[in-house]
Amino acid sequence: MKRMTKTKSPFTVMPMMFALCMAATMFVSCDDDENGGSGNVLSKSAVVGSYPDGKLTVGERDTTVDVSVDGDSLRIAAFPVDQIVAAAVGEDGFEEAIASIDSVPYASVYSASVVGGSVVMDLTADSLCFDVNVGETAKHICMAFAPGAMARYEAADSTLTFSMTVEDVVVDGDTVDAFAPIDYVLSPVKKSAVENFR
């Protein structure tokens, strides 16, 4: 007795092949780890925005700062200078010197590159200078940053961090000899929600 075999119609095989190809394509295209899971390609401009109420550790003390990043600069509205002023004028003149300044804004130019799901920023941390008054005397204070200052934006949670070190303090052209370098480290701070939804 002859056994009959039923051949599959090309109309049955083609949808199965199409479904298999689509599944393979979806598997490959779902790998978006390189861009923080957004499905979009991460660009350097992702870091641009406002980062309010960031916790900045200065030496062993914590303070709050507002950070903003535009297309070429990282800015801190009021850079904490208390420890710098203390090193520059000493304990006797500290209260008067601090009272004589309002706030000291800071800006650093940066160059950025995309690394995985992050934007890494090399900061050109130039010296930051400001004036204080102690009695009748005005003093010009400059703080010099060590090379290697860096910031990092994480696309996965829209947070910014940075670290920089003040390595020297100069008062009226003279370097303060007994100054110990101070680290400034920003804990991860989330980008303003307004910026995230633009």
Structural key phrases:
alpha+beta; 43% strand; 21% helix; single chain; 3 helices; 198 residues
Describe the overall structure.
The chain is of the alpha+beta class and 198 residues long. Helices cover 21% and strands 43% of the residues. It has helices at residues 10-29, 82-99, 193-196, and strands spanning 49-58, 61-69, 73-76, 106-115, 118-124, 128-134, 137-145, 150-154, 159-171, 174-175, 182-190. The protein has an 8-stranded antiparallel beta barrel. Strand 8 (150-154) and strand 9 form a beta hairpin. Mean pLDDT is 84; it is low at 18-37.
Span from first to last CA? 75 Å
Helical residue percent?
A: 10-25%
**Which geometry do the CA atoms define?**
elongated
Number of E-state strands: 11
Mean pLDDT, to the nearest integer, reads 84
Structural class: alpha+beta
Give Rg in angstroms.
28 Å
**Main sheet makeup:** 8 strands, antiparallel, barrel
Strand order of the largest sheet: 1-2-3-4-5-8-9-11
**Helix-strand pattern, N to C?**
HEEEHEEEEEEEEH
Give a brief description.
The protein has 198 residues and is an alpha+beta fold. 21% of the residues lie in helices and 43% in strands. The N and C termini lie far apart (75 Å).
Provide the fold topology:
Layout: H1 10-29, E1 49-58, E2 61-69, E3 73-76, H2 82-99, E4 106-115, E5 118-124, E6 128-134, E7 137-145, E8 150-154, E9 159-171, E10 174-175, E11 182-190, H3 193-196
